[in-house]
Design brief:
By secondary structure, the chain is an all-alpha fold. 71% of the residues lie in helices and 0% in strands. The longest helix has 25 residues.
Amino acid sequence: MNFLAHVYLSGNDEKLIIGNLIADAVKGKQIENFEEGIVKGIKLHRLIDTFTDNHEVFKQSAARLEPVYKKYAVVIADIFYDHFLAKDFHLYSNISLSHTAHHTYSILIRNYAILPPRSKRMLPFMATQNWLEGYANLRDLQRVFNGMSRRASFVSGMENAIVDLKKDYNAFESEFHLFFPDMINYVKSVMASGQI
């Protein structure tokens, strides 16, 4: 899952939100630099990613993209799923997407000093370009893929991903709505069982 899903799955816990959003920038023993609540968020992020990558419905979405995008298929499918969460946020939350997005940016800004360098570099772009709300529309989604394509180590073709989203839009949307309730239930079970 991508940024918006990680925020949503953190609930109202600010430390969990921070950890969930910075997890990809925290490597190895760096996790020891953070307080317990943030560490829980980092661990939750990793469990969410593992669950996603092994879910049959998500694998179906990624497989549709794999012939063209190879190893980037999973990344693209993650972002497609954030698009459908953003577009249909009202189906999953009583809090608006706009409020959720701006509340998230304010949490990160208040805690800027403790963010890893990569997250510090990303935050101004995330907040000023309003990435979390932007996932809902294809224009902003195109900008996301353009930026990712420029930063990719190899030729990725990600700048063309919107074409494939439009081509199989209904299939990707159906798959997301099959997948996401399973994800919600999984996170609830993880939190209730104290796995993190």
